[in-house]
Amino acid sequence: MIYKWIATISFLIAALLLSSNIDESRIGFVIFLYGHTILAFHFWFKERDYPMFTNNVMFLFVDMYGIKQWFF
User: Fold this and answer.
1) Using an 8 Å Cβ cutoff, are 32 and 14 in contact?
2) How many of the other CB atoms lie within 10 Å of CB of 71?
3) Tens of pLDDT along 1-40?
4) How far apart are CA 54 and CA 40, in angstroms?
5) CA 33/CA 59 separation, integer angstroms
6) Is 67 within 8 Å of 33 (Cβ atoms)?
7) What torsion, rounded to 10 degrees, do the Cα atoms 22, 12, 61, 2 define?
8) What whole-number distance in Å separates Cα of residue 4 and Cα of residue 43?
9) Distances in Å between the alpha carbon of 34 and those of 14, 29, 58?
10) Would you give the DSSP letter of residue 46?
11) pLDDT at 3
C-alpha cells in the first residue's frame, strides 16, 4: 500500500514540475521514471496485476524518451 502512495506523490511532483515549464522541469521525467518503476515492481511481484504492470512498463519507455530528449 505504501508503494502506491509513494508513486502517487512522485507523480504529483513530476506533473507540477513539467507543467511549470522551468529549467528544473526536466527532472519531472526522472521522478516519473522513479514512480513508474515502483508501480511496475509492485504490480508484478505483489499483486500479479499484469495489465497494470504492462501499463507502467509502457510509461517507463515514455519516461526514458523524455529523459533522452531533455538531458541528451
Assistant:
1) yes
2) 10
3) 798 999 999 999 999 999 999 989 999 999 999 999 999 9
4) 8
5) 8
6) yes
7) 140
8) 10
9) 10, 9, 14
10) I
11) 86
Task: Give kind and range of the element (H or E) at residue 10.
Answer: helix 2-20
| Burial environment of residue 26 by CB neighbours within 10 A (0 to 12, 13 to 18, 19 or more) | middle
Cell, residue 19? 507543467
> Would you state the cell numbers that stand for residue 10, as one nine-digit string?
512522485
Q: Of 33, 36, 14, 29, whose CA–CA distance to 71 is shortest?
A: 29
DSSP 29-70: HHHHHHHHHHHHHIIIIIS--HHHHHHHHHHHHHHHHHHHHH
In whole angstroms, give the CA distance from residue 4 to residue 39. 7
Query: Considering the entire predicted model, what is its pTM?
Result: 0.90
